Amino acid sequence: MADLAKLSIHQVTLLQQCTTPQFIETMAHHDVRCASLWRDKVREHGVERTAALVADSGITMSGYCFGGLVTSPDAREAARARDDVRRALDEAAALGAPCLVFVAGGVDPAEKSIANARTRALDGIADLIPHARSVGVKLAIEPLHPMICATRSVLSTVGQATRWCDKLAADDIVGIAVDTYAVWWDPDLEAEIARAGKRICAFHVSDWLVDTQDLRFDRGMMGDGVIDIPGIRAMVERTGFDGWVEVEIFSQRNWWKRDTDEVVETIQERFESAT
Ligand code: ZN
Asked: When you count CB atoms within 10 A of the terminal residue's CB, does the N or C end of the chain come out lower?
């Protein structure tokens, strides 16, 4: 079972309870040594002020979430989206985050071409590589569940992420974020994680509830759903991955409504018993 020293908590897990300073304070209070920050919240508080808070707290950053959505067929809109990712990379660098979680983007409803959307996503990443390199922040491309392919991510599997990495040939600055919630259903998961190997640069956990009410905002606490989280973790760690295990729970109907201490204590308990 998981060693608490590897625990990272994503700010989105306490999205509705905490401001950014309150989140950092909560992490420190519960002796959580690593966290990942949510871009909207950071910008609300101010990037520089947040960077100073993080530095003072001594809390390590496992990532910054998120940038991307670069699949628009409109050239101006696509350029604007890429510029926004560059700003997100700058912010991640200021915060000391090693990677920016990259969400590809969906399918244009007028164009109706997933193939074109995928091509543009890949071209977009290629275009962002020099900037990522210049600020020293990895683009952690994150496959997301295919049910949100239309709106969020035309990148859906770890295998597809590996093929994109093959094409990009930039392993120094492009890696893969594996999120249990997004990829657990994949019949080829074990082989694909093995093939992704050293490219895996981030690992996110949460559970899939049998009676899920919302594909994005109803994630479950580890142990409450159907995902074999320790099993997937073992697959990831067999690649040599030795990084943080980041708990990322979007939960409108449950965890966002609970007391912060209760959420963090439950995470710590389930990290040991069900991760
Ligand atoms: Zn994730």
From this structure: N
